[in-house]
Each structure stands twice: as structure tokens, then as C-alpha cells.
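input
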Amino acid sequence: MARANRHYIAGYVWHLTHRCHKREFLLRYAKDRHRWMQWLYKAKKKYGLVILNYMVTSNHVHLLVYDHAGRDVIPKSVQLSAGKTGQEYNHRKKRVGAFWQDRYHATAVETGEHLKKCIVYIDLNMVRTGTVNHPSQWLWCGYNEIQKPRRKNILIDYEKLRELAGFDSFDIFQAAHRKWVGYSLANCECRRESKWTESIATGSNTFVKRIMSQLGTQAGGRKITEAEESFQICEEAESYNALFDAEKCDIAPNNTYNWNVFNEFPVG
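output
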């Protein structure tokens, strides 16, 4: 999987996926999914993270972001939200060990049509599992925030999302977003697509070639393939220790935390 902290290039949209350790259902409790959102909000305020969409499931998270300031903003934000969530869970459960896998995956997504499809792919995650029939029924996702924007404690950057999706107003984008999801549900287009979670980049041929060029030597050994009306840079099969080596220390049971931080943050 892609070494996210090495592959970030400013000026692009990135789809991040991060799974719990051994794919365990460590986010099965609503309070922990909620806390991840709270810490994500803290990361946004602290580092200026630009969030476009998100999904918290019972054993992994999806995060769609725009890198406007270089690679440090995204890794630091993920480290804060993931590290604090794991730390609190381990403290509460008197659990020792890693909460997350020691790597997370990053895929560069082209704006426009490909961004639209990625947004819907994230929205439909819990529909794919059969947990809900519509993303609005799952509280811990960006679909509800897009359709019912918040006045405070806002996670999604509505204007940047509108701009990158290519719409003149957010109202028009909202209406289109509802139609995209409705069409996918009506046509049973909810299947898993590996290009969103297992490639380094996905989009047009021109887009992925540009990413390949900008990666330079970091793209060595990888190739561009075509699949389902898009192109992608395939990742090598390899294992490594990424940014979250430090997290193993962050979530140690002897660390402390303030459980009341951001308790006013609304769910949904």
C-alpha cells in the first residue's frame, strides 16, 4: 500500500483509508466513532486540514482531503485523530497494543467526475456492508453533513468541495450529490472498487501520468493500468512501517487524556 506520508503532493485531493489493527471491530461503539470525529475536528482547527468527505465504520475510516499546504498537514492530522482515538479506547478498556494498523493508504483522486465517484463510493460504504439502506441512516459520515451543513463544529469545507467538484453554488452541488447517491442505489452500484483504496492515483490517463512524473523515483517499479473508465497507478506489494510507528507509543495505557474535550461536538 502507498506510503502516504511520502506520496503527498500539494494541490491534489487524497482519499485516505485506515484500518483497525488486524481489522478488528475496535470502532464498533458509537462513542469511539464519535470521538474520532471530534479529534478530526481538533486536527482541522489545529493544522488547517481541508476535509471534503469522511466515513467512520466499525473497523476502518475513510477520509477525503485536499492538500493545500504540503504533506505535513495531512499526516499530522491523521496522527492526532487516530492516535487520540486509540489512546482513549485502550485507556477505557484497559487494553494494551496497537489500535490501528501501522500504515494507512493514500490515493490521489482527480477532481471533477472522478472526485464525484469517490465521494459516492465513500458515502455508500455502510450500504455495501448491508448495515443501512441509505447513507443518511449512518450518523458517522459526511453525507449527512453535506446535505445538512452545520453552523458550528464544521468538519467539511463546503466551499472547497463545491469548487473542486465544479459547481457554481453549494445548493446545486447538494442537489447533484443526492442524485448521484440515489442513482447508485437504484442501479445497485455499491460494489467495492479497489482503485479507490489500493492505488496511488486514479483518474484520467493525463492525470495519473502527471502524478507519476511528480513522484519521480518514488514511482519506480509501478505501472499505469486502465480499469472501469479510469486509469490508476498500481502499488507494489510490500510491507513497511509508516507514520504510525509513533502511534504505538501514543496509545500506551499509561498515557492520560481529557474525556470531556469537545463533548459539545454534535453527532450527525
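quick obs: Residues 4-250 form a domain with the Alpha-Beta Plaits fold (CATH 3.30.70.1290).
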